Amino acid sequence: MHEYNPESIMPKNTKKGGFKAAKNYVPKDGRTGGSHPGSRSAGHRGFTAGGEGVKKARWTTEDRDARRERTDRFPRDESRGERPNRPAYGRDDNRGGNPRGGFARDDRPARPERGGYGASRGKDFTPRERTDRFDRSDRPTGGYNRDERGPRTGGYNRDDRGPRTGGYNRDDRGARPERFNGFNRDGARPERDGYNRDDRGPRTGGYNRDGGRPDAARADRSAPRTENRGESTGRRYFDDRGSERNFRDYSDRAERPARTGGYNRDDRGARPERSTGFTRDDRGARPERGGYNRDDRGPRTGGYNRDDRGARPARSFDRDDRGARGGSDSKFYPNRDEKPRFTPEEDVVLERLEAQSTLAADVEGVSWQDLGLGDNIARALGELGAPSPFPIQAATIPDVIAGRDVLGRGRTGSGKTIAFGAPLVEKLMENGGGKKRELGRKPRALILAPTRELALQIDRTVQPIARSVGLFTTQIYGGVPQGRQVGALQRGVDIIVGTPGRIEDLIEQRRLDLSEVTITVLDEADHMCDLGFLEPVQRILNRTQQGGQKLLFSATLDKGVAMLVDEFLVDPSVREVAGEDQASGTIDHRVLLVDRNDKDLIIEQLADREGKTLIFSRTRAYAERMADQLEDAGIPAVSLHGDLNQARRTRNLEKLTKGRVNVLVATDVAARGIHVDDIDLVIQADPPDEYKTYMHRSGRTGRAGRTGTVLTIIPRSRQRRTKELLDRAEITADFTPFFPGDTL
DNA sequence: AAAAAAT
């Protein structure tokens, strides 16, 4: 996306003459577009030409006309060839006039103002309007779909699925076509398979993305096909992501099938060996995995994901190749074939992992200063609500200050952020001395996290600590304009907190130089070693100073980090707190055996309560749907998943944090690290596939010694697998049949 | 399946 905020445009986008058309843009402080951040610039989707965020509940004809006219004044659009289309298209047969009217969701109402002026991209409009009616098949039509939905859900989609395969979500979909029943979805479906599929093959090709998409796409189908097809699949469903998404869909898709698509998949295929190789041998976690692959595989034939592939021209090819391929394209993942080589070494690591425990009792009466932290830092910690160290902090801080590489395992909510954040600042003070405030100084510490929300949260804790001694931090993560981040780097920061993608991006742009980074922290380190994260993380670590100190933390630190440990750490000290494991916590675990047909209703009933509730779903689409359903039932709820744009993600999480809603429905993006006070109930609407995921999800409650309840909803058919999973997590839970109307 | 960059 283009950013036109002053910090970034100056250096970077000067050539865009077309931009001057946005007369109202006043590059003063970077926030001129309107009252909210999304509207600050003309190139931005949410830009409001007049600068004022006028709320409109609906578009009147005049509004629309006016808008169209204004739009026409923007040369830029023409140059893109986009605008011309828009009028014709943006409107509305389908969409009926009221762009967003339907939307109860909090986010939505806001949109009109914003959209007020996306002006520049044709895309901006479409989605919005569409939203109402078609997109969300679920929601929009409110009365309508919904009714259908009722039955559907209850009776149908879901349930069908249940019975149907047993095999599951995934498979169902593949199978679904026959079923027609559902409406929004299914009605559309037939085409989809026969037909769309073809489209989709190419289109979807991609992988990750597609995951979310299908549903969206599916929903669209009910709308006139021609139109949907073109531009907005993703968009109208998750309105916010607007143009970037679309863009992405296309381009990615275009290449992905061949490339990444080919890849991820292949990798997965390959994965078993690898993991077996080392990641989780002991745990037996694999089986589930297997479980997972298996599902795909079963259906594969008719399967869903696979179909995409099927459609993919390249596919049969890819597949066949795969065996032999061994890396034909392997510039990206050159070592894939060599991975299985780690086998014996991990055991060593495992031993180390279990070695040094600190007794909680030994920590009594210890102060921050006793651990080696300075007074300023101790004071800052006190202000953060941590007057004295928790056990994991007492266990790791001295080692970090001593300059050792550290692997720290502390159960969820035990205070790991401070355990690495505070001593990291202390170390920078010690080493850094002289060049503290130098303009444009290079960062000397890096903290990597797997999600943006977590990076943001870590920064919120580390920043005050750093500030207390005059050091600066900045967040470097995606989904937001990079201008501010780059500006901060240019001014000079000491500590970077971020996610891998944007960090790599800025490195490639030569805007970020990690060569002076002497301390690197990987939070949720085991997850950072999972497929998809490992390689970027390796590349990033390779950009940091050779021999720099490395700190790896996670509640589920295990052999999975062996690769990184072998490659980057030297004689690490492994720390944990004796007797503090997930099972010894303050969380009550229960498994509810439910009939698939009752699932949604039961979740609704369980979530209808006073305290804060976090619901986990396996897919983005289900999270979205569930949030809608709860809202419809009069239970204020928001969602959090990767199909939302970052602004909404942040806002929705904040709504829960601030108590504006009590229910958040999330994918596993919220499984790790996210801290919200007082979540006393976690509902797993879909059971996790890995025991580690179970531990992290459930760890969103029962934090810092509080009590909490975790309910895992499963069909009876999943009982055994769930028991095995709980065994691995060393958690005991009652399994109880549960029906609508039951209480706990 | 999800997450992580953007154009």
UniProtKB/TrEMBL annotation:
Domain Helicase C-terminal: 602-744
Domain called DEAD-box RNA helicase Q: residue spans: 366-394
Spans annotated as Disordered: 1-344
Superkingdom of the source species: Bacteria
Record field: compositional bias (Basic and acidic residues): 53-95, 103-114, 121-179, 186-202, 210-324, 334-344
Molecular function in Gene Ontology: ATP binding; hydrolase activity; nucleic acid binding; RNA helicase activity
UniProt KW Hydrolase keyword: yes
Intervals of motif Q motif: 366-394
Keywords on record: ATP-binding, Helicase, Hydrolase, Nucleotide-binding
Any Gene Ontology CC annotation: cytosol
Keyword Coiled coil: no
Domain Helicase ATP-binding: 397-575
PANTHER family listed in its UniProt record: ATP-DEPENDENT RNA HELICASE RHLE (PTHR47959:SF13), ATP-DEPENDENT RNA HELICASE RHLE-RELATED (PTHR47959)
Family: Belongs to the DEAD box helicase family.
Protein name: Helicase-like protein
